[in-house]
Amino acid sequence: MSKTEDSRNETLTEKRHGVLATPTDLKGKAIRDIAGAMNAILADVFGIYLKTKNFHWHMSGPHFRDYHLLLDEHADQLFAMTDPIAERVRKLGGSTLRSIGHISRLQRMSDNDAEYVEPLDMLAELCEDNTMLATRLREVHDLCAEHRDIATASLIEAWIDETEKRTWFLFESSRKGRSSGH
Question: What whole-number distance in Å separates Cα of residue 21 and Cα of residue 44?
Answer without folding.
Answer: 25
